Amino acid sequence: MDRRRLITGTASLLASGLAVGATPAGRSSRHFPKGFLWGAASAGHQVEGNDTASDTWLLGNVRPTNFSEPVGDACDSFNRWREDVDLVRGIGLNSYRFSIEWSRIEPEPGQYSMATLDHYKRMIDGCRERGIAPLVTFSHFTSPRWFAARNGWLAPDAPQRFADYCDRAARHLGEGISHAITLNEPQLMGILKWAGLPAPFWDAQRAMLIAAARAVGTEKFFTANAMNLEDFPEATRQLIASHKAGRAAIKAAWPRLPVGVSLAVVDDQAVGDNSRRDAKRAEVYGPWLEAVRGDEFVGVQNYERSRIDSNGPLPPPEDARRNQQGSEVWAPSLAGAVRYVHAATGVPIVVTEHGVSADDDALRAWLIPAALRELAAVMQEGVPVQGYVHWSLLDNFEWVFGYRPHYGLCAVDRKTFRRTPKASAAVYGAIARRNAL
């Protein structure tokens, strides 16, 4: 999902006197709670490179495809993960969200790679050695090619397959993990349905999935972040079952490890009479908000708001700030999404993604403190928010859009892989170090 002048400096940011939520006696109300997670995020397929056994690697390389370019080496983070964790620490953050690649761990059914599990164990230990809490996603959209070729998440045994993988990975890795996230944005296709994407998009995606099925010699090739709309209702039921099975497997291995799921949540706002907002919420979020009520936290991932009248989503206001794709950038949207999810579930919140696609880093440097002021107000209302994780650490591969969108706190040279922190990283790091606005 894709969203986009440098503020005069950190001094003006720190001079801001806007209040933050309730805090212990004797501390300024501008402070966030002790132990608040300040993080940046990445995802395996988007940064590691060369996960050739994954479903999404195939989607990017078949013809026809709706991916603008293949992922290739990505940011070479499978080899350069130490640089990435050093960047997290250098910015001044205390947590790093990343994903483990199921296709690397179980490249064929029941065949687990101890070398890959040991690789991710080194990553987790490396985070801990640097004072960084690892938030680990077990499936950030991608799955093994063999899994997608067997009808993927629609297969009757998909929840058990996912649980078996979660069990094996959790028993090897769980000791050092701070928070475990089963699935990333499992209801994203519902949001895209309501976004009013044109028919050619869905036609191209269907053609790509047919080409992928042909490439692996199967009738249907099913993935979490590229599916035909008629499959969405059954996929929702199966992904919820898979989340619950994965959660149970992780908890069985490490009972004290907090487990949740990350949901994509637009700040939907009703406009006028007979708004269709509540119909969207019921379809896209309703089943998941029911499913997460037994979780220890729910991840909220927000990039924008949507104003919805009786006909559906309205275009952004004429004077709106806009990201690289032309969507509105509205700082209060994160707070609105967090407030909605907590009111519906009563579950503690971790903001597992929030950011903006922008060539002009000044927009990012403005958005981070502006959104955090709004989030702080929600916390003052009593909503338990445990952390804020920014998307993303690096300018990385953004799925069908390739490398054109820039979400990163750090730029990446596409030839040398050199990482260069942007000014927005300093703005964000100043907040995190102070644990305050």
Identify the notable features of this structure and list them briefly:
single chain, alpha/beta, eight-stranded parallel barrel, three-stranded mixed β-sheet, 16 helices, globular, disordered N terminus
Q: Can you give a write-up of this model?
A:
The chain has helices spanning 10-14, 44-47, 55-61, 77-91, 102-105, 114-129, 145-149, 158-173, 188-194, 199-216, 232-253, 277-284, 286-291, 333-345, 361-380, 423-434, and strands at residues 37-41, 95-99, 133-139, 179-184, 259-264, 267-270, 298-302, 305-309, 312-313, 349-354, 385-391, 410-412, 419-421. Helices cover 41% and strands 15% of the residues. With 437 residues, the protein is an alpha/beta fold. Strand 10 (349-354), helix 15 and strand 11 form a beta-alpha-beta unit. Helix 8 (158-173) runs parallel beside helix 11 (232-253), helix 14 runs parallel beside helix 15 (361-380) and helix 15 (361-380) packs parallel to helix 16. Mean pLDDT is 93; it is low at 1-28. The chain has an eight-stranded parallel barrel, surrounded by four helices.
